[in-house]
Amino acid sequence: MARDDNRGGGRRNQRDETPEFADRLVAINRVSKTVKGGKRFGFAALVVVGDQRGRVGFGKGKAKEVPEAIRKATEQAKRQMIRVPLRDGRTLHHDTHGRHGAGKVFMRTAPQGTGIIAGGPMRAVFEMLGVQDVVAKSLGSQNPYNMIRATMDGLTNEASPRSVAQRRGKKVADILPKHDNPTSAIATAEAETTDA
């Protein structure tokens, strides 16, 4: 008897512990099929889902009713999530670009306070990802499906210094660029202003 009570219970508890996801409806498209008696309408939905802490996914769903299409798209997005490393939890580690079909997107890191400078579907991806500062530009296709796929392609190429160092067998300090001593740079800048 005790064995029967435990069946499947562990899986259900794991699902309850997963973080809550936010979702954003990016596009909804009404399509029609002409039949003998008139037209039959269907709906296609494009949804982006994320935990706003570095995980994001997108999905598309088709159904006769809008809520059902959105539900299908959300479920697919939750199954196709990717993890993206973020610097300080607010921006990308390095500039990157992505491509899908004729859609091209360029994404750049940005200093704190910049905000999300991105158009349309890309903005939804960054908001659901949890990025706070980024500058992005889309070129080519304006189709939201291709723009989101190109954005996801670029984000999959994103790598943190830790992962690069681990892959190359080096320390993180060896990978990062070495900056001059900041105090000496400030002192030289002040000396130049007093001379002028």
Structure description:
- By secondary structure, this protein is α+β, with helices and mostly antiparallel strands.
- It contains 8 helices and 8 strands.
- The strands form 2 sheets. A 4-stranded antiparallel beta sheet has the order 1-2-3-4.
- α4 crosses α5 (144-156).
- The termini are far apart.
Q: The biggest beta sheet, please? A: 4 strands, antiparallel
**Using DSSP, what is the number of strands?**
8
Number of helical elements: 8
From N to C, what is the helix and strand string? HHEEEHEEEEHEHHHH
Low-confidence stretches: 11-17
Judged by helices, strands and strand pairing, the structural class is alpha+beta
Gyration radius from CA atoms, angstroms: 23 Å
Mean pLDDT: 83
First-to-last CA distance: 88 Å
Strand order of the largest sheet: 1-2-3-4
- Percent strand: 25-35%
Fraction of residues in H or I helices: 25-40%
**Looking at the structure, what is the overall shape?**
elongated
Task: Give short descriptive properties of this protein.
196 residues, alpha+beta, four-stranded antiparallel sheet, four-stranded mixed sheet, 8 strands, 39% helix, elongated
